[in-house]
What we know:
Oligomer: single chain
CATH class: Alpha Beta
Strand content: 5-15%
Structural class: alpha/beta
Shape: globular
Order of helices and strands: EHHEHEHHEHEHH
Helix content: 40-55%
Distance between the termini: 7 Å
Radius of gyration: 16 Å
Number of domains: 1
Mean pLDDT: 97
Low-confidence stretches: none
Strand order of the largest sheet: 2-1-3-4-5
Number of strands: 5
Amino acid sequence: MKIVFFGDSITDCGRDRNDEASLGNGYVKILADKLRPIYPDMDIQLINKGVSGNEVSDLLARVDSDVLAYKPDACVMMIGINNAIHQVRDGKMLDFDKLRSDLAELIKKLKDAGIVVIFLEPFLLPAPDKFRMRPLFNRELAVIRDVCIPSCDEFVAYDEMFNGLCESTPYSVYSTDGVHPLFEGSDIIANTAIKAIRKHLM
């Protein structure tokens, strides 16, 4: 089974662009190290196509070359946090209508190719300097959920999960900046994503 991981820096996590087998040092690598021993007799090929800084429109622009060209059985995708970050940090307005249409088109291209789509919801932890981003991010999450929950094969909700954990544990255990996960955060992503992936292993 061939699975492409598609997303931004959270997926990318320092992967070597010159090495197709490089999975980076984040949740994709942790997931691979956990998944392969469970299925020692199965040929599972994992490909990391995360690119730091990407928004939804960037994934749509490169889906043909970075996903469809590989003819994968499944695509595990996490995207969206940069759409909000780039407005708050850089003043690039988040166009919710374009976000909705780009995301819908992206998922349709994958589904039309017969690819199982597993969407990992983006998240924002309660780091003090990210509080002002929360209202915008909540609006974005509403669009993401509205598009992805009915159209993807699996939808894993991380925002509520992580913020629930942060009610009893400092956010800094999972991420220093509220966006990029440390090992503990990546491990949670890997463990929950595996459950979604295993439903579709063949």
